[in-house]
Write a structure and sequence with these properties.
The chain is of the alpha+beta class and 273 residues long. It has 3 domains: 5-182, Lambda Exonuclease, Chain A, CATH 3.90.320.10; 202-241, no CATH class; 243-273, no CATH class. It is built from 8 helices and 10 strands. The strands form 3 sheets. A 4-stranded mixed sheet has the order 4-5-6-7. Strands 1-3-2 form a 3-stranded mixed sheet, sandwiched between helices. The chain has a 3-stranded antiparallel sheet with strand order 8-9-10, with no helix packed on it. A hairpin with a 6-residue loop joins strand 2 and strand 3 (88-91).
């Protein structure tokens, strides 16, 4: 999202949350590029098509989230200083008072996987949460034309891995700030794995969640029909191999086998609705 002149003035000479994915991800070339841009040695690249598209789509995503949930998203574009760390700030995509959560909004390519992008943007969202003093950090992601999803990246209070990750994150902020102050290129910062975001639910133990009572019998049906499904797939393959090369369509009392232009044979039930 493009920054206004006022936003740029508030962020001037400060480190920002948007820098943290680079500091934590272990890409040495990206880290050096960021350093050279910050000291004025390298001119920033103009926005790409994807960046400009995101600047138009992301406000719409927040508007729609607000409309569909009925919960206001405020502080959009607000620049917030960290309460205790000097020369550090963030620019919020939004804040939701309903659940005391910062909303970090991203419009990404459809092939991006949640484990990859959640880990990459985690330090940015975490820093925003600390700047605001919020209880939760939410990554709101739209991938292509799919319905946007919310991912809760809030660190667990008793998670030692999350605590160590955050301590290293702020140590790198200070180290990079010293590089900028002294015009000293940063040394390599290895990638730090983000804490685990996704829960493990053991349905062999009581009490079960509400959805667990439905999932267990559903999975039992899945297991009971395994052999039948394998036999179904095997017989379908055999039937396709029996169709002569010069035959495009085969009709049976129950099925229609048809060959497409690429030679692939499909099987459909003739009486299917």
């Amino acid at each position: 999202m493009a920054l206004s002149v006022e936003q740029q003035a508030k962020r001037a000479f400060k480190m920002t949350a948007s820098m943290l994915p680079i500091l934590m991800h272990g890409d040495e070339a990206a880290l050096l590029k960021l350093y050279r841009e910050e000291i004025g040695e390298l001119e920033r690249e103009p926005p790409t098509y994807a960046m400009e598209l995101g600047s138009h789509v992301e406000p719409f995503m927040l508007d729609r989230l607000e409309r569909t949930t009925g919960h206001a998203i405020t502080l959009r574009g607000e620049v917030v200083d960290h309460p205790t760390i000097p020369e550090f700030c963030c620019t919020l995509d939004g804040y939701r008072s309903f659940d005391d959560a910062i909303i970090e909004n991203k419009f990404l390519a459809p092939f991006r996987h949640r484990e990859e992008f959640a880990a990459y943007y985690y330090p940015q969202a975490l820093a925003q949460m600390r700047c605001v003093g919020a209880a939760r950090c939410i990554l709101h992601v739209g991938r292509g034309t799919s319905e946007p999803e919310e991912f809760n990246l809030t660190p667990k209070p008793d998670d030692a891995v999350a605590a160590a990750y955050e301590a290293e994150m702020w140590a790198r902020v200070e180290a990079f700030r010293q590089c900028l102050r002294t015009f000293t290129p940063p040394v390599d910062m290895p990638k730090v794995p983000a804490p685990e975001f996704w829960r493990t639910v053991d349905l062999t133990q009581e009490p079960l969640p509400n959805w667990g009572h439905v999932m267990l019998p559903t999975l039992q049906i899945f297991e009971d029909t395994r052999e039948a499904a394998e036999e179904h797939e095997k017989s379908g393959k055999e039937a396709r191999t029996l169709v002569p090369d010069d035959v495009a369509i085969v009709l049976t009392p129950e099925h229609r086998l048809s060959r497409n232009k690429k030679g692939v044979i499909s099987i459909r039930r003739r009486n299917a609705a």
